Amino acid sequence: MSSTAADPERESPGRNDPSAGVQKALLGIGWTLVGVPLVYGLVQTLRRVVTLFTG
C-alpha cells in the first residue's frame, strides 16, 4: 500500500503552510505596484483624449 495515495497532507500542502499568507500578501502588493500606475496612466490618457477631441 502506498503512503502517498491517502495522505491528506500531500493533497493540500497550502492548508497549514504559513507561507501561503505571505504569498497572498506579496501577490496583493505586486498587483498594487502594477495596478496603481496603470490606472493613473489610463486616467491621464482619457483626460487628454477628451481635451483633444473637444478642443
Q: What features would you highlight for this structure?
A:
single chain; 55 residues; mainly alpha; 2 helices; 73% helix; rod-shaped; membrane
Topology diagram in text:
Layout: H1 8-11, H2 19-54
Concise synopsis of the structure shown:
The chain has 55 residues and is mostly helical. It has two helices and no strands. Helices cover 73% and strands 0% of the residues.
- SS field, number of helical segments: 2
Question: Which structural class is indicated by helix and strand composition?
Answer: mainly alpha
CA radius of gyration: 23 Å
Largest beta-sheet characterization: none
Overall 3D shape? rod-shaped
State the end-to-end distance.
Answer: 77 Å
Mean pLDDT: 84
> How do the helices and strands follow one another from N- to C-terminus?
HH
Estimated helix fraction: over 70%
Low-confidence stretches: none
User: DSSP strand (E) fraction?
Assistant: under 5%
The beta-strand count equals 0
Region (Disordered): 1-20
Keywords: Membrane, Transmembrane, Transmembrane helix
Transmembrane segments: 25-43
